[in-house]
Design a protein that fits this description.
Length: about 325
Amino acid sequence: MRAIDPAQSGGPEVLKTSEIPVPVPGPDEVLIQVAAAGVNRPDVLQRKGSYPPPPGAPSTLGLEVAGTVVAAGQEVAREMIGQRVCALLGGGGYAEYAVAPAGQCLSVPSALTMAEAAAMPETLFTVWSNLFERAYAQEGDTVLVHGGTSGIGTMAISLCNLFGVTIIVTAGSDAKCAAAIAHGANHAINYKTEDFVARVKEITGGAGVNAVLDMVGGDYVARNMQCMAEDGRHVSIAVQGGARAEVPIFEIMRRRLTLTGSTLRPRDSAFKALVADELSRNVWPFVEQGRLKPIIDATFPLDRAADAHRRMESGEHVGKIVLTLD
């Protein structure tokens, strides 16, 4: 099969199609004929050599796909064969075929195209497990999410709209702020021209936000704390601005703040299946009704994966970038 499995780390130019064997599903896995694969920031980091796949995961890039189940392991119900699914993967999505644990698959309803379905799992699993579970966001809360026009940011906006959560986002230009507002953000702050701490205090009348979803790290952590209400929750999911932070511990004590974080990819399949089950019950009905869809920034055929990565690294995208396969 054709796949993107770079032999060495480097720039986008290392992303060339090659021929590798079709994977064989394990006892609890399905084999998916891939119609589309989502492109995510961890793919870029893996390509550069700074985010190796976890043990047992394929070296082929790609953390999410949509397609048709064509084979299944002996522990999987035969009824899954022939079904249209999207799935969260540990790797292997940039290919004509990919394997996924059956528990990490969600059915693709008629309301979604395959490209839209492929753009859902990574951001949906991430936002749900971190903002709504780890940070306990609930109806009536106000939250701050950085990267408002990223795949994570746009999914967070969509879910907050569905569950009655007021969302403030940051973005790097007035045009991106306008795009976030158009998508449903209640407030958008241009972090390049405004002090987001001061603006959050202004927007919330000094009360602060109940939760922060942060993918920046570094000095943003202490600044985020200044945005938080008493008993606020801060969840770190990436460290694009630095892996170390200095925080005032007494402020954590005085205002009873919670600082936590997680990474999704290394978690075991049992945890991911649990999240998938929660999504199928709490979120997927909105997908089936056509009320929850990802924003697609651009699609590229598999053999133009390098261009897809260039688009992501440009920082100009709004929403998700997707690879499509014939």
